[in-house]
Amino acid sequence: MTAALLVACGLFGLAVGSFLNVVIHRVPRKESVVRPRSRCPGCGTQLAERDNIPVVSWVLLRGKCRTCGEPISARYPLVEVLTGALFVAVALRFGLDWAVPAYLVFFASLVAISFIDLEHYIIPNRVLYPTLFIALPLLVLAAATQDQWQNLERALLGAVVAWLFFLVLHLISPRGMGFGDVRLSFLLGLFLGWLDLRHVFLGVFFGFLLGSVVGLVLMAFRRRGRKDHIPFGPFLAAGAVIAVLFGSSILAWYSPA
């Protein structure tokens, strides 16, 4: 059953990654993610089913539109592969746990948020709010079916603590910490708090650590200046992923019994 779960999550992740590409492209432009069907950004031709298979179609078409030959960004297969890999990682981390669906939604949301923030410097409410609307009932279902109400209480507490912490940072330095990051912190605190309140601290720590290291490297190579804005959402997302997948091992190593 474990092998079947891994395969199912991987294939499902590839399909979800294909949808996330639509979200990443359309949400910043305030377009519907449902209609119309996927089209070539260059010539506007509607993609046939055979040209819309995750990863495979991009490889067979050699990264170009079948109709006009316009290059198709490598971001498309990257998002699909990344989402598939993260879904497999969730299955490995949780196994046959009722919390798996909620964490699949969480990781999918982090992928979309990260790529949108990298390109447009925004963390859209059109991704955050639907994620909370879907994920919260899934966590309640997991708590009810497995009698894990303490996990749910910790999740809500973690969400509030993370949100208040980022809100204070935003009030101190609005330019350094956007309110989109504050909203995102609630989602991060919710899912990290479900595991353990220490995971909230760990995820935030890794987010700041990754952001600082990358920022220093970019400045060292003169790709960014001190006053240039660097999107923080992807680093917070990466920190959260590290905390979810490896947090328990890191905490056990840091404070052995």
Give structural notes.
With about 260 residues, the protein is mainly alpha-helical. It has two domains: about 100 residues, no CATH class; about 160 residues, no CATH class. Helix 1 runs parallel beside helix 4 and helix 3 packs antiparallel against helix 4. The protein starts with a helix and ends with a helix. The mean pLDDT is about 90.
What characteristics describe this protein?
257 residues, mainly alpha
Briefly characterize the structure:
The protein has 257 residues and is mainly α. The chain has two domains: 1-96, no CATH class; 98-257, no CATH class.
- Beta-strand proportion: under 5%
State the low-pLDDT regions, or none. none
Number of strands: 0
Straight-line N-to-C gap: 32 Å
Biggest sheet features: none
Helix content: over 70%
Whole-number count of domains: 2
What is the overall silhouette?
globular
Structural class: mainly alpha
Q: Using only CA atoms, what is the Rg?
A: 19 Å
Separate helix tally: 9
Q: What do the pLDDT scores average to? A: 90
Which H/E pattern describes the elements? HHHHHHHHH
Q: What's the SSE blueprint?
A:
Blueprint: H1 2-26, H2 56-60, H3 75-94, H4 100-120, H5 125-146, H6 149-172, H7 179-195, H8 197-220, H9 233-254
